[in-house]
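A reminder from the course coordinator: this example appears on the midterm review sheet, so study it carefully.

Given structure:
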C-alpha cells in the first residue's frame, strides 16, 4: 500500500487529513506519525509505541525519548508533538476497534499511553 493510500485510510477511519498518522501493521501495533507535513523535507516519522517521553527544549524544539533509551531533538513545539501523539492514539484505538471484528479476536496492541 502506498503512503497516499495509508493517509486515505486514516481519513476514512477518523477524519484526520493533515499530518495524518499511518498504520504500517495494525495487527502488531506499528503506527507512525509525522512531526511536520510529510511534504516538508525536515519531516521525521516516529513510531508511536516506541515513544516513552517528550520534553520541551524551547518554544520550537522538543526532545523525544524512546523506550530504547535513545532520544532525538526535533524542530517542533511540544504542543504540536503532543497533539500528534494524541491523534495517533485516537487513530490506533478506532482502527483497532474496527479490525478486531475482522481478526475474530481482540488484538494484542491497542492505543495505550506511550508514556507508561
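Designed residues:
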Amino acid at each position: 500500500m502506498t503512503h497516499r493510500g495509508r493517509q486515505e485510510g486514516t481519513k476514512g477511519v477518523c477524519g484526520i487529513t493533515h499530518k495524518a498518522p499511518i498504520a504500517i501493521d495494525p495487527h502488531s501495533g506499528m503506527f507512525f506519525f509525522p512531526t511536520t507535513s510529510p511534504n516538508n523535507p525536515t519531516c521525521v516519522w516516529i513510531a508511536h509505541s516506541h515513544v516513552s517521553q517528550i520534553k520541551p527544549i524551547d518554544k520550537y524544539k522538543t526532545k523525544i525519548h524512546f523506550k530504547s533509551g535513545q532520544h532525538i531533538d526535533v524542530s517542533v513545539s511540544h504542543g504540536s508533538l503532543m497533539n500528534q501523539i494524541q491523534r495517533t492514539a485516537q487513530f490506533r484505538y478506532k482502527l483497532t476497534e474496527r479490525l478486531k471484528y475482522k481478526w475474530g479476536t481482540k488484538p494484542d496492541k491497542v492505543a495505550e499511553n506511550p508514556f507508561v
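Strands lie at 22-25, 30-34, 45-47, 51-58, 61-66, 71-74. The longest helix spans residues 78-103.
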